[in-house]
Design goal:
Length: 740
């Protein structure tokens, strides 16, 4: 018999849902049938039926695959069929509005829609150029254009928003009649959102902007105001989990609340009940995101044990929490935050305490420094296993491996916990008594800790190889090899020394892969067409040039550069005069301080670009033509006509024509139009003039229109949310085209 049946069922259910997200709904239906057949077969085998492990896992898997398919068919697919249409909607704002990328966003529940066969419930995100005077549960009535989030099946932006119940994006036709009315009812969640808003403002009123944004991001999971630089730094060094409200945050808040209640001499059981109410409130304030819900349910089970004088089993609590979340929304497994929270918690439950105990027995010899040694050992035990258990998810989700993660967690984990405690007290005290100055000491400490965390993260992110791209084949080989080594170790384990040998071999594999990759990429010029951005990045021997800065945000370019170990740019060359490209250009200049800026004359009108250009050594301003030599083997020529410039990159004997949105092809020479490769965000106007071997389109398939014949003539390769397209040119004249 199984000792923990709930653990097997809960874990199997969540992992199966993660597989279902990866494979998509139709393969999930196939796997649901196969799992059900496997269950029936194992029930016919006496030994398998008696052990119960295989039947339980197979039936849990079959139910998970089946529920995912049913959820997609009943709610997701009908909503997706509305994409591309205009509709008049009457909707209720169900979350706090936020601002990002110079637009305003509103998550709404649709009450009425002018389209037939729209599913219910239907939650969408509305964006607008101008702010609407709304609050939670206000009503918005107006005309919108519906479209899908980026990405297709698998772990994409579309699946991530589905995990939050959001199936469609839309933008508001603001020139038409838009009606906004106040809330007609105010459920409990209304007051939780108002409290969240008040606490966010409370923090901002006490701390400088950068520190306040970090505190709000860590304490409340509000990442909308965080600068791209901070987000990129935290991701590069492997501590982005600190910015996602999860088990660490929930446990910290629950322990702080319980400690304060016990300090005021409230009996243990009433204190546990009050702490449980506080946990529910904190879950509401952080908007019930899956990672918070998982940790909140675990905390509630633990506090229930205190009320009932029982000791809850941590593994059972973890499995119950993820099972409940998966049953409520099968797409919850598409939330990487939930998977990271689950895997880190599993690692801590299984090995953290044992590791800390072993280190204490070995190194805790001097009484005077015993508290310090035990504290360091506890952090080490937590850090090592959290990093190891989340590593596969980080590699597959973020496409990078942070070699700085162990030291970064060691340096940032305790300060982040202390910052949360002091900031929470400061925010509440300042909210209750804003003019009393009682909150200032707590705010001062939390602000200093935030300043330390920002400086430490930025310094670590600048270290060589702080982050290594997992798109390199050796990283996946290393991950597969490490998993194989661990499996063999578990099977053959006769001594714990085998684990040390396994860890050493894994480290040797990784370092060998990095070293051999660097050797193989020596003197190789790479041209990367970035997925989700109108940008081409050229790299060679640790140097880089960015051609085009279009798209909604600069993060895509910045993250790619950091994954390649780039700290500074040789050349930055924007290609259009749009406000979005100007903003992205200024942000990239601030983050990477280019040696040379090549920009069309009218582009210098932007105030932010002019300010950052003053820090750049060489600024080349041109009217209609510019030429830049890169690394002796690459030539970049730009022609500007109207509102955008067209660029021809020549390296070796291969030419690549870059056509940003708004570029005109009619004035280009035949030599340019006959370039070997063409790059565009979508099929350019007069695209029939192009004669490339292959056209690389950094777009979604749905955005390319219906002109299949013209597309076919261009021989397209589409990024489509599935990764960057890279051309690699070697000195021997060979070329490789691959998707990362």
């Amino acid at each position: 018999m199984m000792k923990r049946p709930l653990v097997l069922v809960g874990f199997s259910y969540l992992l199966t849902l993660a597989a279902a997200v990866y494979f998509g709904p139709y393969l999930s239906l196939v796997f649901a049938c196969l799992s059900l057949a496997g269950f029936l077969i194992t029930m016919l085998v006496p030994k398998a039926r008696a052990a119960a492990v295989f039947p339980a896992a197979l039936i849990a898997g079959s139910l998970a695959f089946g529920s995912f398919y049913a959820y997609h068919q009943s709610l997701i697919k009908p909503a997706e069929q509305l994409a591309g249409q205009d509709a008049v909607i009457d909707a209720t704002v169900c979350e706090l509005p936020y601002q990002a990328y110079n637009r305003f966003y509103y998550i709404v529940e649709v009450n009425d829609i002018s389209l037939k066969d729209a599913p219910r419930p239907l939650k969408i995100r509305i964006s607008s150029q101008n702010a609407l005077l709304v609050e939670p549960y206000s009503h918005i009535k107006g005309k919108v254009h519906l479209f899908l989030p980026q990405g297709g099946e698998g772990f994409s932006s579309r699946s991530y928003y589905a995990s939050k119940g959001i199936t469609l994006f839309s933008y508001l036709y603001e020139y038409e009649n838009v009606q906004v009315s106040p809330p007609t009812h105010k459920p409990p969640y209304y007051y939780a959102l108002k409290l969240r808003s008040a606490l966010l403002k409370s923090v901002r009123s006490m701390l400088p902007p950068n520190e306040a944004d970090l505190v709000n991001g860590v304490l409340f999971g509000d990442q909308t105001s965080l600068s791209p630089q901070v987000t990129s730094d935290f991701r590069a060094i492997g501590i982005s989990h600190i910015l996602s409200v999860s088990g660490l945050h929930m446990t910290t808040m629950a322990e702080l609340l319980l400690m304060l209640l016990l300090f005021f001499r409230i009996p243990k059981k009433p204190a546990a009940a009050m702490a449980g109410a506080g946990v529910v409130c904190f879950m509401a304030i952080t908007c019930f995101v899956p990672s918070v819900t998982r940790s909140g349910v675990m905390c509630l089970i633990y506090l229930s044990g205190m009320l009932l004088s029982r000791h809850p089993d941590s593994l059972n609590s973890l499995s119950i929490s993820v099972l409940l979340i998966g049953l409520a929304n099968p797409y919850a497994a598409a939330d990487v935050g939930l998977l990271l929270s689950f895997s880190a918690t599993l690692g801590l439950i299984l090995f953290s305490g044992q590791t800390a105990g072993y280190l204490n027995r070995k190194y805790d010899k001097i009484k005077k420094i015993r508290p310090f040694v035990r504290g360091v050992n506890g952090i080490l035990g937590t850090t090592v296993w959290a990093v190891l258990f989340t590593l596969p998810i980080v590699i597959l989700s973020f496409g990078s491996v942070s070699l700085a993660a162990p030291i970064a967690n060691l340096l940032e984990l305790v300060p982040s916990t202390l910052m949360m405690n002091f900031a929470a007290i400061a925010a509440v005290v300042n909210l209750v008594a804003p003019q009393s100055f009682l909150a200032m000491p707590f705010a001062l400490v939390s602000g200093l800790l935030a300043k330390y965390m920002l400086a430490c993260a930025h310094w670590l992110a600048q270290l060589p190889f702080a982050s290594v791209s997992a798109s390199y084949s050796f990283v996946r080989i290393w991950l597969a090899g490490t998993i194989l080594l661990v499996a063999v170790t578990v099977l053959l384990m006769k001594s714990k020394k085998l684990f040390r040998v396994t860890a050493l071999l894994s480290l040797i594999l990784l370092l060998t892969g990095i070293f051999s990759y660097q050797l193989s990429m020596r003197n190789v010029t790479r041209l990367a067409v970035l997925d989700g951005a109108e940008s081409v990045v050229l790299t060679r021997n640790g140097h880089a040039a960015v051609i085009g800065c279009g798209g909604f945000r600069s993060d895509t370019v910045a993250e790619y550069l950091r994954s390649q170990g780039i700290k500074k740019l040789d050349v930055l060359q924007p290609l259009s005069l749009t406000a979005e490209e100007a903003k992205n250009t200024a942000e990239l200049m601030a983050a990477f301080t280019p040696e040379k800026l090549v920009i069309q004359n009218d582009g210098m009108i932007d105030t932010f670009i002019r300010r950052e250009a003053s820090k750049t050594k060489n600024v080349e301003v041109y009217d209609s033509f510019a030429e830049t030599k890169l690394w002796k083997n690459t030539d970049v020529q730009a022609r500007f006509d109207g509102t955008a410039g067209t660029v021809r990159v020549t390296t070796g004997n291969v030419s690549v024509l870059v056509c940003p949105s708004g570029a005109k092809l009619t004035g280009l020479s035949q030599e340019w139009l006959a370039s070997d490769f063409a790059v565009a965000a979508a099929v350019p106007e007069h695209g029939e003039l192009l004669r490339p071997m292959i056209t690389i389109l950094s777009a979604e398939k749905e955005e390319l229109g219906q002109d299949v014949l013209q597309l076919k003539k261009l021989n397209p390769i589409i990024t489509g949310g599935e990764g960057n397209i890279v051309l690699q040119f070697r000195e021997d004249g060979t070329m490789e085209l691959r998707r990362e």
